[in-house]
Design a protein that fits this description.
alpha/beta; two-stranded antiparallel ribbon; 2 domains; six-stranded parallel sheet; Rossmann fold; binds nicotinamide-adenine-dinucleotide
Length: 358
């Protein structure tokens, strides 16, 4: 048994189909009276229902959450919260909306109640990101961790199938890298393996029937587990590559994770055989298929993109992407020094072409 440090994060999770009905009780338990509801423009109807449910406990609605949390939006929302006398924020949506809640909490210490409707997992992490002058600054701060999270699978029925699949692959990526994290621990390994298993079973069922509440429940359960792993242990090469491709080349978040994951896992495989066994077991692998190939198949067979080309990457940018990835790398089980640049460049080429890793 390896030595480890485990520190639980202080958040309360309420899970279940129909769990939104506990919202008022949960706001009361936070000691709050007036909630500012946050959402993206696309989820305004869903958020208005939440505000209606809150009645006089709703201070107002801010429907302008946006990808990568522009600082101007965060300031606007923070000012509105203060003007309306809000004493908590309810963030209903995916990682972009949760991210806005976090940006508000960072400066105001307003407690956040998150109601996630994708599988991105931000609600379980103390990690924030704010974009100012075109640059995304990320950091870790305990104040931004949502105090309460309500997971209600019924709220995810409207998540389009393509985004459900890529968002699920995004969640699996947190768990896969958590299994070989430098600061990993046995609890996170259990959660990671179970999270991958839950999502790998749920995604094909969601593809068959987007309204399958049981499958939606399994996927959200998996997202919770994988998000918890992301919030507790450090990520490695895969996340570095995705931050590079998302941040510098403006590729869509969940899709880029989906495409890169099999290749990052194939790259790290020789250095982390135990993690690979666990990923394979969670994917129900038998025979000679590798975990990396099985992840590729999971995405492809469920209609997700498998090449960077099809999600908008330009071939001419691959060299620059490789340069950025090897400069200032995250800790990784297989060292990513300048000497590894040719291998990283090849990894990116394979991801660009959509080659199935063997
Ligand atoms: P997103 O929040 O940007 O959502 C994508 C779109 O789907 C939005 O228009 C949203 O309104 C819509 N949507 C969400 N749920 C829906 C539903 N149930 N029905 C219909 N439409 C729905 O996408 P995301 O992938 O959840 O989040 C991505 C962002 O989150 C990125 O900026 C990423 O960096 C960040 N993120 C942060 C962390 C962290 O720990 N800080 C973790 C994961 C992701």
């Amino acid at each position: 048994m390896q030595d480890f440090i485990f520190q639980g994060q202080p958040s309360r999770v309420v899970f279940g189909a129909g769990a939104l009905s506990h919202l008022e009780r949960e706001i009361e338990l936070l000691g709050a009276r007036r909630a500012l509801v946050l959402c993206t423009p696309e989820q305004q109807t869903q958020a208005a229902e939440v505000a209606d449910r809150l009645g006089p406990r709703a201070a107002g609605l801010f429907p302008r959450a946006a990808m990568h949390v522009p600082i101007e939006t965060a300031r606007e929302a923070r000012e509105l919260a203060s003007r309306l006398g809000a004493d908590c924020a309810v963030a209903i949506g995916g990682g972009s909306t949760t991210g806005l809640g976090k940006a508000i909490a960072l400066d105001s210490a307003l407690p956040i109640l998150a109601i996630p409707t994708t599988y991105a997992g931000s609600e379980m992490t103390p990690i924030f990101g704010i974009t100012e002058g075109g640059l995304k600054r990320t950091g870790k701060d305990a104040r931004v961790l949502p105090r309460t999270v309500i997971y209600d699978p019924e709220l995810t029925l409207s998540l389009p199938v393509p985004l459900s699949i890529t968002s699920g692959m995004n969640a699996i990526a947190h768990a896969a890298e958590g299994l070989y994290a430098r600061d990993g621990n046995p609890i996170m390994a259990l959660m990671a393996e179970e999270g991958i298993r839950a999502l790998a079973t749920a995604l094909p069922a969601i593809r068959r029937d987007a309204a399958d509440v049981a499958a939606r429940g399994s996927a959200l359960y998996g997202a919770w587990l994988c998000g918890t792993v992301l919030g507790n242990v450090g990520m490695a090469l895969h996340h570095k590559l995705c931050h590079t491709l998302g941040g510098s080349f403006n590729l869509p978040h969940a899709e880029v994770h989906t495409v890169v994951l099999p290749h990052a896992i194939a790259f790290n495989a020789p250095a982390v055989p135990e993690a690979l066994v666990r990923i394979g077991r969670a994917l129900g692998l038998s025979g000679s298929t590798s975990a990396a190939a099985a992840l590729f198949d999971l995405a492809r067979d469920n209609g997700a993109p498998v090449s960077l080309r099809e999600i908008g990457m330009q071939a001419a940018d691959l060299d620059r992407a490789a340069d950025i990835a090897v400069s200032n790398p995250y800790s990784n089980p297989r060292e990513v020094t300048a000497a590894a640049r040719p291998a990283i460049r090849q990894l990116l080429q394979d991801a660009f072409d959509g080659v199935r890793p063997t």
